[in-house]
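User: Hi! I'm a student and our assignment asks us to look at how structure tokens line up with a sequence. Could you show me two examples?

Assistant: Happy to help. In each example below, the sequence comes first and the structure tokens follow. Example one:
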Amino acid sequence: MKKRFVVVDLETTGNSPKKGDRIIQFAAVVIENGEIIERFATFVNPQKKIPSFIEQFTGISDDVVANAPDFSIVAPEVVSMCKDAYFVAHNVPFDYSFLQEELANCGYRSFECLTIDTVELSRVMLPLADSYKLGQLAESLSLPHENPHQADSDAEVTAEILLKIMNKIETLPLVTLRKLYTLSKNFKSDIVEILGDIIDQKSDEIQDSKDFDVYRGIALRKKQIQVLEDNQEVHTYSKDIEAYIEHFPFRKGQLEMLKLTSHALETNQHALIEAGTGIGKSIAYLLPAIHLSKTKGRVIISTNTLQLQQQLIEKDIEIARNLLPYTFRAELLKGKGNYLSLRKFEQVLYEETDNYDEVLTKAQILVWLTETETGDIDEINLPSGGKLLWERVKCSHSSTNFQDTIWESRCFYQRARNAVKMADIIITNHALLVRDISSGFDILPAYDRIIIDEAHHLEIQAKKHVGTLLHFLGIHTILLQLGQLETNELIAKTKKIAESVGIETQAFITANQLLKEIKSGVSDLFRSIRNHILQQANEQHASNRIQYPFLSNVESGITWQEVIERLQALIISKKELSVIIDNQKEWIYQQNAMITPIQFGILHDYLVCFDLLAEKLDKIEDFLLSKAEHIKWIEIETRGPVNSATLYAEPTDISDYLADHFFTNKKSVIMTSATLTVDQSFQYSIERNGLIDFHPLTLSIPSPFDYEKQAAIMIPTDLPMINTVSLEEYVHSIALQIAEIAIKTKGRMLVLFTAYEMLKLTYNYLKEMSFLDQFVLIAQSISSGSRAKLTKNFQAFDKAILLGTNSFWEGVDIPGEDLTALVIVRLPFTPPNDPVFAVRAKQIEDKGGDSFRELSLPEAIIRFKQGVGRLIRSENDKGIIFIMDRRIITTSYGRKFLSSIPAMKVHKKPLQELLQEIEEWI
């Protein structure tokens, strides 16, 4: 790497120099011949006050820059340094344009450099990174980063990242580099010449491909063959698992869970085990599962989240390997759509496009293929736009007889399927599990015993799978893949193949016209559905979202008639198209000998897309016209696109389905979670999951954490009851109390809401409070980003308040001092107008039951337990839980909420008195 790079970082008063924002710190690191040769850094006086949030973020105050030079003094040095060099930054568009503006203000009107963006290059060259934010990227690369958000430290880390990336590029195989060279012409970074030099150098060298399998011009990482060796002779195998684990340092309750799991698996019984946070339940069920698999056959372990799957594979399985004196094989299997299809990727790779996200995703996948052995999408950090390309290159289920003869021997999905056939332990997910159940156990290899972790999600996943979810975008995506004859998508490519083998192509013209009609018809249909609901929903909706209970036999009116007419037109077009496609299927299989494998792959994708389209249209027809027992509802966004309607159908009760199709067919099912009991009883979980007739074993193990010392519940008694005042007045009171708590706790606060409307109102009130200027406010659906991104942003600031709803009640892990206060605004009862809840409640009432006691209260308690579980995540955590809903102490059922969580001190006082206790507690 014989070029000169100047790696720059700026700290500024804001994001817009045109609006008066200025540089407060400039830093540069100069690299030549692959080594750092110079460093330069200076504070800059911006001639204006530094905003408080910038001071908190960077640590740079007005006092720090008071005696610093004006940027005009620094400018000549900057221009001289960057001459004839690549300008490098982490997010180069910001630093480069900001610097250009500042230099222009100083009279330098022609500052131009070749640029390299280390965010972009990191995405391509480090496709496995969890995050491309500078601090998190530095951590993943084990780079020291002493002062994040200060320019000198950030520039140093960015320079080290650049050096690692350049070294990585030089290790890539020549075939990968040549393809990256072609793609890089559409990169934002000026990397073409650098890649060209490396390619020239490598072309003169003898290529050693011992680490790569180069096939059809694409380099793959060679599959490593694992050799498992027993630590002792087979004849010493003991049936008693405890013979092998007597020296393992079990936590309180962990050994108890292990013994019950072992007993249930050995005696062919189902069991429910509630294990509080910190028990170490993964090890407690893994060890007996592995041990039993050696004599009674494989055991499946199913989780709901990717994080737990990764923990099992990367950490817990390895602990078990080191502990047990015999070998075992553990493999991971996910749904087919999680794996890359090499055949499809090869097709897409050579398509010309100037779409930036597509180009970047192709480049990422090329580099990823030199590293991955699994081809699993969860390994690679795709850009948001890259997920559209993934839909085109993932493996897919097919009703055709297509055999991928070219890439079959290297197929990632087939490799995973083959591996699990040999496994003692198979780790999978709930979604694939319920798909396996519904297919008659045709996907996973045969098994008799299974452990279901995060078991409170099984019922939800089963309902989703048995039910229906349809929206315009899902159908539109299929239509985009098919394209039109005027574009270069599947129908146009298929027509060209037909012409090449002498097939009559008139049918393609008719199919093309029908596709246009279907595309227009689907959009019109969803628009009509949305219009119908807007007219039928008479009540005022403060929310952007309306959930409309749908009953086909009671819908009426002009707008409903329009829906039916649109649907009927769509059905006619679909039937006409199906006749054409059926005929085309025949000639495709008849011409098999004249079609190349790559061409056959295109034809296969063409037919699969039509099958998917027909399936979606059939489901729409069934949803709108049938009188099935499933509960149906439609969600629309009042301020969303004109066709933003989503159709849902679910069974109100999945218990009989699980009993008949799952539990009856398995010898032992162990269900475990931190939230399976309500008021210290398993009855609700047993009934909801269809286990009544099986009389499962049960065990509840409390968390080993000392909640009496680590946490306290505080309930302000001076808040109004929500049903006695207006929503605005109630939220205003809540916001004031949250603000006062934040001042005392110095932020580090997670606030949980049950409704987005209340969250938004609270956010707006908090934002207007000037005394909270030093705090960073982060709010779900207001601040941009996923749950994981919002959580990471929250952890990045010393003083922050995170407002969340729905998904933030569980699965969020913020350990240590990053979270010291949890605020639960309302007890998490499902709104009575929720369509699924309303039907379930009515069914209970019709049978003479009490829907509040049997449905509403248990669900709220389980949700409440999940929310409380966000605070204490380790034995060293300490914090306060504020419950702003006085019903927890003023109602008879409030006791059930408190008795369902670990015992801790409860303080019931006016807020000002509680604030004094906060000081003593913290």
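Example two works the same way, sequence first and then tokens:
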Amino acid sequence: MGRGVKEDKMMPKGESGCFKLTVIVLLLNIGSFVVPVTGFSLKFCRISYNIAICSNSKLNTVPQDIPSTVNGLDLSVNKIKKIQASDFKNLSLLMQLDLKRNLIWQIDPGTFANLIFLKKLNLNNNRLVQLGDGLFDGLNNLTELRLYRNHIRAVAPTSFKSLTSLTFLDISNNKLQHITRVHTILQHLPNLWELVVKNNDLTTFQSWELTNSSLKLAYLDLSQNPIAVFRITADVFPNLTWLNIGGSSKKLQMKWDVHNKTFLSRVSTLDVSGLQITSDDMETLRATFNSSLTTLRMNAMKRTHLAALINISCTIPTLSALQLERNSLHYISSNFFQVCINVTELDLSDNPIRYIDDHAFTSLDGLRILSLNRNKLTSVPVAVRNLPTLEELDLSKNNISTLKCNDFANLKKLRQLSLHQNSISALQECVFKDLIRLQVLKLQNNTLSKLNGAFKKYLPNLKQLRLNGNKLTAIKHGEFMGLQSLQNLSLHENQIEKVENGSFIGLTNLTDIQLQSNYIKKTELDKGGFNHLINLRRLDLRDNHIKYSYSSPLPHPPFSQLSRLETLAIPGQHSRGKSKLPSNFLQGLTNLVDFSARNIQLLSLAKDMFKYTPRLQTLDISSNDLMEVSPELFFPIQSLKSLYISRTSLWSLDFLIDAKLTKLEFLQARKNEYSILTDSIFSSTPALVYLDLQGNSFTCDCDNAWFSKWALYNTQTQVFDAYNFVCNYPPDLKNTKLLDLDVRSCIVDTEFICYISTTCTILLFMAVSFTYQFLRWQLAYAYYLFLALLFKTKHKNKQAHDQYDAFISYNTHDEPWVIREMLPKLEGEQGWRLCKPIIDNITDAIYGSRKTICVISRRYLESEWCSREIQVASFRLFDEQKDVLILVFLEEIPTNQLSPYYRMRKLLKTRTYLSWPRAEEHPELFWEKLRQALNTREDLGDDRFLLVERA
């Protein structure tokens, strides 16, 4: 697209030149202009990773300005009621479409016909009542369809006919009342792998109503349906491995009737949560799944005798995982799991358990995973010490306040321990002494104020330690020196004020440390406490009390030893007052990629601040008081890809012009004072694909005419929320939308100008070529005719005598003959006054002589000047009607050879002439006739002297 030029005021120079409208295009008579491709400035959406995000925009219809190139569209959380057949016709490249949480009650037939590449379709939480015939026509490649929480009661026989590639279908929380509705769905889905039909109104499940026996179905969820009878009389699910038949809120018992144990012989996971199951029913279930079941979920079994069910289910020899969440268990006795000798995973989460017998898990000598989170435990149960094979233990969200030295005794294989969200206030040095293989320890969100050396000696294999959300006030020297394998340390949201020198000694493998939201001050950084973290990749110090009031270099930069650090976030300012950063604050960070100095009340940045960080790609200096930024700041970081400069009080983005950030892709500059944006800014950032300028106050006049057009039509850079940009000046246009402003009066279409000028140039060239080829002699004659008219007008009132008797017109190649033969005879012997050619004023010379003698040869006819002389003389002949022209031929030139010289041929037809070749034998006669011709009267008449017979 060419960029317009504003009238009267200087506008940015246009990008496109006249050269792209070539002669070929003009010769093809292209009379119309190309309509610009719709750009990225969408009224209600934004583009992210080629996905149009239009969620939560209060839309009533599908927007029609979405680029046809997107492969994803998110229209969730809007107010769309009806989907029309034309809504997606131009979005044939879509691979995922999200329409959840709208008010959709109708979808027109053929709506999805063009979406041949669509893989995922989400229609959850709408108001569909029925699925009509051919509703999903065109979706042959769809693999995932979600219809959760609608009001679907009816399914037409061919609704799912086109969905031959579908592998996942969720049609739960609807109003399906009969299994035949499910059959209508299944008969057209040969590749369906997972079907979720939970929380409908199915009252029976009879296999004879499912006639299709070629199903690949592996996951079937029928939970929360009021199924009274579950009867399988045929092998309709030969591939089923996961089955959920959990109960509904309606208090109904389900009759379980499986005629052949082999019908469900592949099911490994069974969920009967919430069902009212008697011991006899459980025996039937046990018999059905006795050789395949590995995971049994019996959550929320509030109206059953749970202990009896556990004893029966644990006799299944293949059972290894038992889930018992939300079962109102208060106490676990010693014989509760006595039969469960094969169980390796036990989930007792979300029960009000207060006490566990010390021998409750004695029989579970192979247990690897134990979840006791969200209970009422006040201490670590002694029972866990009897689980030497335990690898994961979750005790989070209990009421544990104290940890003792023997709490985790014998757990030498434990790899993950979760103790977060308890009330632990302190640790003991010996508490983790036996956890030699522990890799993950979660202690966040307790009330820890002291670590008491708990991490100085033990936990040699710990890789992740979470201590955030506690009440730690200081990190002492060598506090973590026993954690030589630690990679991730979370200390954020504590009350840390003091970080002693050597606090992180021993953490040579640490790559990530989070210290944000503490009370750390500048003096702690100056101690060099981070110098031991030689392999650190990420350091977060946001929201601390670190403040520098000077920009002069530091004697000991705080991060000078962290050469491998890639991400650094320095604190936002808690206290009042402006701050600066020392010019060598980042010294040593040669591999830094991401730097955030957000909200630290910076007044300025030293020009050489980033000379130490040549690999920097992301820079965030938002929420500061940087009213001006020097382009030189960016010279050392030419690899920068993302720049955040929101809320910095900047008045202009012109610094980007000289900064020349050619790799910059993302620019967020919200809530500043930018009023005018020129194309020079964006031509200096050719890689820019995302621009966020929300909350700026724009000037709505011709100065922003270019930007308004560019925001709408450029196809590379997405200008986020451009349709909501508001004018702040001039006052009469305040609160007007920038893109609603009519800027046609400001813009001259350079493409149109180029088109017209190029057309005119080519037409002129063609006219000149034609004239030169066919009319050049006529034009030359007209030129001399004009000169003669001027001469005649100039001398019409003058009666001056002729200056010469004759003007001699000849070619320079014939000059020897004129000098040797003609001049001696005419001037020497006969006494005539003769005038030879005068280049400066031919017309005056001819009109100043009584006669004009043309000495004609072949070279004479080819001479441009001689042609002009004879043209002037012939004009005098015809205009004044005077016998002024004498033709003397030095060569015999046949008439047919005179054809190109049409004016000479015309003269020969009306004039007499002398021929020198014919006078070779009688030269004296030739000169006598020439003398007589010079003596004749100038008036033309019938008595004129005949020189020679005409050829």
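Here is something you could point out in your write-up. Residues 778-935 form a domain with the Rossmann fold fold (CATH 3.40.50.10140).
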